[in-house]
Amino acid sequence: MEVSGRKGPARPRRPAARPPPPLPLLLPLAALLLAPRAPALAAPEGAPPWRSEQAIGALAASRKNGVFVASGSCLHQLDHTLQRQLSRLHQEDQPGNCSEPVALPPPARPRPASSFSKLLLPYREGADGGRDQGLLLTGWTFNGGGCEVRPLASLNLSKLLSRPEVVSCHPRGSTAGVVYQAPQDRRWYLAVAATYVLPEPEDRPKCGPAASDLDTAITLQDTEKLFTAEEGQLKLQPGAGTLHFVDAFLWNGSVYFPYYPYNYTSGAAPRASAMARIAQSTQVDFQGQVALDCDRGHPDGRRLLLSSSLLEPLGLWAGVFSAAVGPEPDARRSPATTALCLFRMSEIQARARTCSSDFQTSDNQNCEKDAEPNAVQPIESSILIHSDLTSVYGTVVLNRTVLFLGTGDGQLLKVILGENLTSNCPEVIYEIKEETPVFHKLVPDPENNTYIYLASGKEIRRIRVANCNNHKSCTACLRAMDPHCGWCDSLQRCPVCVAATCAWCENEKKCIHPFTACDPLDYKKNQNVCQASRKSPLSRAGGYRTKKNVKINQNSQVFSIQSIMPQKVSTLGKSDLIVIGTNFTQASNISMILKGTSTCDQDVIHVHQVMNDTHMKFSLPSSRKEMKDVCIQFDDGDCFPAGTLSFVALPSCSFIFPATTWVSGGQNITIEGRNFDVIDNLIISHEGKDFSVYGYCTETQCNFLAPNLKSSKGRPNVNVKMKVQDVLVDCKTLQYLDDPRFIGYRVEFLGLKELEVKIQKENDNFNISKQDIEMTLFYGENNQRNCSFENITRGQDLTTILCKIKVVSTQDNIIASSKKVRVKLGNLERYVEQESVPSTWYFLIVLPVLLVTVIFVAVVVTRYKSKELSRKQSQQLELLESELRKEIRDGFAELQMDKLDVVDSFGTVPFLDYKHFALRTFFPESGGFTHIFTEDMHSRDPGDKNESLIALDALICNKSFLVTVIHTLEKQKSFSVKDRCLFASFLTIALQTKLVYLTSILEVLTRDLMEQSSNMQPKLMLRRTESVVEKLLTNWMSVCLSGFLRETVGEPFYLLVTTLNQKINKGPVDVITSKALYTLNEDWLLWQVPEFSTVALNAVFEKIPENESTDVCRSIAVNVLDCDTIGQAKEKIFQAFLSKNGSLYGLQINEIGLELQLGTRQKELLDIDSSSVILEDGITKLNTIGHYEISNGSTISVFKKLSNFTSDVEYSEHHCHLILPDSEAFQDVQGKRHRGKHKFKVKEMYLTKLLSTKVAIHSVLEKLFRSIWSLPNSKAPFAIKYFFDFLDAQAENKKITDPDVVHIWKTNSLPLRFWVNILKNPQFVFDIKKTPHIDSCLSVIAQAFMDAFSLAEQQLGKEAPTNKLLYAKDIPNYKEEVKAYYKAIRDLPPLSSLEMEEFLTQESKKHENEFNEEVALTEIYKYIVKYFDEILNKLERERGLEDAQKQLLRVKVLFDEKKKCKWV
User: Fold this and answer.
1) Fewer CB near the last or first residue (10 Å), C or N of the chain?
2) Residue 587 gets which letter from DSSP?
3) CA-based diameter of the chain, in Å?
C-alpha cells in the first residue's frame, strides 16, 4: 500500500467563539457556513462512478490538483468531482492507450499493494510558503520495480527516473512508502518497505534485486537522487520469512510500517501482525517493532492486516484485521472473521523493542534467543467485530472520532466513537449495487470534506460522508449523534454541516441552530442536547450467554438444535425460517437471538410457531447486509448456538436465455444474476396479472418453464419478476411469438443400424435446445420409436431438425411404413406428415385396383414358374458351393505355397534432398508454401537483408518475447489449429540455423504445456496437434532425426514400400476405386475379382537418338495381367525400365505411348477408343490387355508421344474397370441407380488375401521396425536421448510416480509425432508417388506400429476389425522389444549440455542457406501484426519486457514504411 506525504488528515476548522450575529444576518451566514468550501463543485446526487478499463491499484488525492488513480499500467488524473482530465501510460514511449478495455478481471479480494502500481505519493504540495506546486512519485512493477517523479500539475512531464529495485517488481508483492522532509538537511526522502523476493514458477521471467539485496526489507533514498544507491537499508533477519507491508505513515518524528508475516505459497500467516518503526532522518535508524493483537472474539486469531489509517490529532491508529479465509470448513468466513481495532500510538512507541525477530539490528546480539516482540493491546471499547471488513479511514470532526469502513459486499459503513472511544453500531451510508468489494484504501476529498472517495474493482465513486437528509426532524437529527449533521431551524432540515453544530435552548425548550437568536448563557454544545437524542448504552460483544452442549430445563428435558433453514435470507427478513431439532414442544418460552456486528444491538425474536416436536418457525424482521450468529434460547436459559445466518441484498438479474419463446410455453428458460437463493417465488407478470411459475434456483442461476399464454391476444411480452417476502423485484422481459410451424419430414438410411429423420419447419427466432424437444416416429400398425435429437440447421427458407433412430434389422420396414412424426416442444405437440405424400383420396381410388391386379398376376405367374424356379435354384446352389470350395482351396494353397520374388537390388534409393524433406514434413497439407521457400539461397548476398526483417529476426531471438507472443496468439479464438501449425513451421524455418535457441524455446513451451495437462489429464499431453509446441516438436524431431532417417531407416523403409507395391500389383487392381485383391486393409479389398491370368510381354523401347545411351537395354520382358488397363500396363512397363536402366531418357510416363505389334502393322493401345464396351446407362468399360486379346509373348512398342502429354483418360462416374455397375461396391461409388446381374461373390471368401499380403512383406516389415527401435553402436540418436531424459526429469520434478505417464509422453513425442508421420507418408522421404491404396496399407502398418508402443492390452474377439486382427499375434513381441528399447535409452549415460549444443550447432551449419528465411520472417510478422494489440497489451502486463515493447514498435514502423514504399 502507499500513503501520501501528508502526516494525517487535516484537522477541521472550528468556528470562532463569538456572540451570535443579529437576526438579519442569520440566513446568509448560515448558508455560507453550511456550504462546502469553494472552489470544488459538488457532484450531483446519484452521479455515475468514474470507471477505468483495468482494476484500480492505487489512489491518492491532492488539494490543488485533484485525484490520481493508477490502474494496470495507466495513470489517470481526475478533478475532485471525478471528471477525467488526463490519462496516460506510465511511460512516454510505451505503446497503446488507456481507453481500451483489458481482459483482466479485478481481484475479488484486493490485498494491499497487490497490483502493478506500487506507489502513488503526492508530496511537497504547498511547501516553501505555498509556492511549491508539488510532485507525484509513482512506483510500478515495470522496469524491474522502478519509480518516476512528475509535477503534480503536469503528468506529461517526467522530472526524474529511478533505478530498478526501488519497489517490488512482483504484482503480488507488497510495497509501502512515504515521502518526508528530513529535519537535518530539509531534503525530501523516500522511505520504502517492500517484498522484493517472492517464490515464482520456473517458467516465468524472474524479477528481483541483485544477490546482495535479496534480504532487503526497508530502504531510504533521496528523492532527487533516485537513480543512485540508497541512503540506507534495513535487512531481514535470517528465517524471518516473507513480510507483507500494508502501509507507511509519519507520527511524532518517526516512520511506521504496519505489516504481517505471510507465506505467499501456502497463504498462511505464521505470526501476528506487527509494526516497525524507523527515525524520520537522513539514514535508516531502526527504532523497534511491536506485535499488534486484535484477536478478540476469534479462536484462531486475526493475523492478516487488511487496511490502515492514522488519526494523528488523537494519536490513534486504526487497523482492519482478518482471520484466514479459505475453502476449508475451519477457515470459512464467520461473523467474527474481521475486526476493527484502535491502538494508541504513544503505547506503540513506548513498547517498541529494538530486539527484532524480523529485522537485522545492531541490538540483536544482546537480545535473548527467540525473543518475541512486545504485544500492544487495542483500546477495548473501540473493538468492532464484523464478518467482512476490507478498509478503514478515520478522521476527527468537532472533537468526535469518525471511522469509515468498507466491506467485502460493497457497503460503506460509518462508525462514531463516544467520549471514551466506544464504537457505536455502524450506519450504512452507501451500498454498491454490484456488491464488489471495497478497495483497501478510503481517501477523503481534500477540497470538500463532506465527500469521501470509494474505490471498488474498476470504479471510483464520490460519496457524501453523511446521509443527514434522511433525518426529517430536529429530534431525529440529534438522535443520530452524527457530528457531520446539524439542524437548521430556519430551513427546517438536517443538512451536512461540519463547521457548525446543534444546541439545546433551555429557555425555549427546543432544538436550535447556533445562529438562532438565543441567550448566550443558554448556548450549550452537544453535551446538552435534546432529550430525544439520548440513547441507551451500546450492547457489546458477548451480549448473550451460549452453551455448546444440549440444553436441559428444570424438568430435565433435553433440547438440541440440528440446523436452520435457510442459512441465507434477504435484507427484508424471512417470515418462515425453520429450525430443526428435538423436544421443542417441551419448552414454554423459545427465542432466537441474532448477533451481527459486535457494537450493534442483538435481535431477540420469539418463536412464531412450534410446528411439532422437531420443527419450529420464526419470522425474521428486516436487517442490514451482514452475517450473524444464531442461537436458540429455551425458557430463559443459556443460548444454544445454531450456526450462522447471512443477510444479503435483494436478488438482481443480469441475463435471460432464451429471451424469446412460443405461446404454448413449456420451454426451459434460464436467468442469471446474484442472490437467487433467497427468492421465494418466480413471478410472470402479464396483462396486469401476476402468477407463479415453478423454478429451481441456485445462488447465481434460476431455471423455469415458460407458461402457456395461448389465450393471450397478439404476441405478448411478459415481465419476469422475483418475489422475496412481499416484494416483487423486476428481472427481465420474455417475448412470446407464434408457435413454430412444421412442414414435413423424411426418413433416410444412415449405416446398417441407424435411421436419420429430418423434420422441416419454417424459420423463426426460437433457440431450441435438446432439453426442449421430443420426437417420436410412428410406423406400421401401432409401432413407434423415439428419435434422439442431434442438431438444428437453419437454411435460407427452412430450418431442419435432425434426429436419429437406432434400429436392429427393420430399416426398410420402418421407412416403407412410416406414417408421421410427433414433435413435442414444451407444451406444444404437433404431428408432422411425411413429405411428398399423395392425397388420401388418390390412395382410396388407386389402391384397390392395384391390389386386384397384383393378386391376379401373382397367381398366374407363380403357378407357371414355380417348377422352373425350383430347378434354377438347385443349379445356383450347386454352382455357389463349387465356387466356394474352389476359392477357399485356392486361398489356402496360395497362402502355403506363394512366395514373392523380392528384388534384392532395387537400385539407388531415391531420397529427397533435405530441403524438400523438411518442407513436406513442415507443410504436409499446405503445398502452396513449398515453392516460396525453395529459392536458391547460395547465390544471395548475405549482406543484402531488409532492415525490417533484421529487426524482427533480432526480436524473436528474445526468448521472453517469443514465448509471450506464442501464448498470446494461442489465446485468440481466431488463431486456428491450422494457424498454429503454420506458425510453428515458419518459426522452425526462421530459426533453422539457430537450433540451440529453438531447442530452448521448445523446452519452455513443453513445460508450459505440462502445466496445462497436469491440471487435467497428464496422459493426454502431446497426443494431438492443437498447440504451437506440439507442431514445433514434430518439426524439431524431423530436423534432428533427418540424418538417422536417411542412414539407418531409409533403406528398409523404401524396401517395404517397393515390396508392398510388387505384392499389390501381382493381383488385379481396380483403377477407378484403387481397390486391390492383395492388400492389408479390408476396406480396400477387391473381393468382386474376375478370373485373371498373367501375360508375359516383350516391351521394345523406341530409339531416341538425342537421349540414347550405349548401355541402355531397349528390350525388356514384363509381366502384366490380362485384367490390367492399358494405363496400368504402361505403368508396369515404365517401372521395369526404370529398375533396369534408372531413367527412361528423361521422359515421364504421360509422355510415352504403347503400340501392339501385329505382324507388319501396329495398333495403338488406349484405355478408351472406338472399340471400348459401352454398358447400360452409358457407362464405358476401360480397355484392358484382355480386351485387345494380347497373348503371351506379344511385342509391345514403347514410343515417345509427339503431343498430348496428359493422362490417357480422365476417369469419371461414367467409367468402370473391374467393379461393374451391378455390384454392391460399384453402387457405393457410383450410386444406387445401376442394377443388373453379376456372378455371386462373398467378401469373406477373400480375407485370406490380407494374410497373404502380410506374409509377403513380413520380413521386410520387421527389419524396418527394428531399424527404428534399434541403438546403432549402443548409442541413441542425440535428439531422442536428450528429449527422453528431459521428459524423465520433468516427471521427477512434478512428482509423477506413475511410470505409464512418462511412457505415454515418450510415445506421443517420438513414435506418434514423428515415426507414424513418416511411415504413412513415404513421399516425405523419397521421390515417389504414393497411391491411395498404398496409403491405406501403410495406415494398417502405422496402426500396428503404434499398438506396439501402447500400454493397453488388446482384447480382441472374433468380431474385431481385420485391420487389428492381422497383427494381433505380433504385437506382444513388438511390445517387449519397445520396452527394452525405452529401457536401453534410459540406461545410457546422460548427454552433457556441451554434447547436445555441439550436435545442434553442427546441424545448424548443415542447413545454412537451405531456405529463404526472409519469407518465414514475413509470414511470422503477418500473425504478429494481425494480433498486434493483444500482443502489446500482454507485453505491457509482463515485467521485464519493456525493451521488447520498444523493439516491437520499431519493427512495426519499419514494416509500415516498407509497405508505403510498395516493397511488399
Assistant:
1) C
2) -
3) 150
Q: Which residues contact 1415 (CB under 8 A, 6 or more apart)?
A: 932, 933, 935, 989
* pTM over cut 0.85: no
CA atoms in the 13 A half-sphere facing the CB of 1164: 11
pLDDT at position 489 is 80
Position 619 pLDDT exceeds 90: yes
Enumerate residues 6+ apart whose C-beta is below 8 A from 847.
Answer: none
Report yes or no: 359 and 276 within 8 Å, Cβ to Cβ.
yes
Whether 438 and 625 have beta carbons less than 8 Å apart is answered as no
Q: How far apart are alpha carbons 924 and 1325 in whole angstroms?
A: 12
Q: Is 162 exposed, middle or buried (0-12, 13-18, 19+ CB in 10 A)?
A: buried
> What are the angstrom distances between the C-alpha of 681 and each of 617, 659, 1311, 1355, 1454?
19, 20, 60, 55, 64
Give the full edge-to-edge strand order of the sheet including 668-674.
Answer: 652-657, 668-674, 701-705, 695-697
pLDDT in tens, 284-328: 999 999 999 999 888 889 999 999 999 999 999 999 999 988 765
For 1186-1231, what is each residue's pLDDT tens digit? 999 999 989 999 988 876 554 445 677 788 898 877 654 444 444 4
Higher-confidence position of 1206 and 892: 892
**CB contact at 8 A, 1243 and 1114:** no
Q: What is the pLDDT of residue 156?
A: 76
Direct distance between the N- and C-terminal alpha carbons of the chain, in angstroms, rounded to an integer? 51
Q: What's the alpha-carbon Rg for the chain, to the nearest Å?
A: 44
Long-range contacts of 1331-1335 (CB under 8 A, 24+ apart): 1331/1074, 1332/1074, 1333/1064, 1333/1069, 1333/1074, 1333/1075, 1333/1076, 1333/1079, 1333/1084, 1334/1057, 1334/1060, 1334/1061, 1334/1064
Q: Which of 440-444, 530-534, 1204-1208 has the lowest mean pLDDT?
A: 530-534
Compute the half-sphere exposure of residue 615: CA atoms within 13 Å on the CB side of its CA.
6
Per DSSP, the residues of 362-390 read GGGGGSPTTPPPPEE---GGG-EEES-EE
3-state secondary structure 216-257: EEEEEEECCCCCCCCCEEEEECCCCCCEEECCCEEECCEEEE
> Which residue type sits at 1027?
S
Element at 1186 (helix H, strand E):
none
| pLDDT on residue 719 | 93
The C-alpha atoms of residue 1439 and residue 1433 are separated, in whole angstroms, by 12
pLDDT of residue 158: 67
* Cα gap 645→627, rounded to integer Å: 6
DSSP 1362-1393: HHHHTTTTTHHHHHHHHHHHHHHHHHSPPPPH
Cα 903 to Cα 1384: distance, rounded to the nearest angstrom: 34
Backbone angles phi, psi at 819, to 5 degrees: -115, -45
CA nearest to 814, candidates 776, 774, 780: 780
Please, are residues 473 and 497 in contact by the beta-carbon 8 Å criterion? no
C-beta separation of 487 from 538 below 8 A:
no
In terms of residues, how long is the chain?
Answer: 1464
What is the distance between the alpha carbons of residues 570 and 577, in angstroms, rounded to a whole number? 12
Element holding 83 (H helix, E strand): none
Residue in this structure with the C-alpha cell 518524528, named with its chain if needed: 253
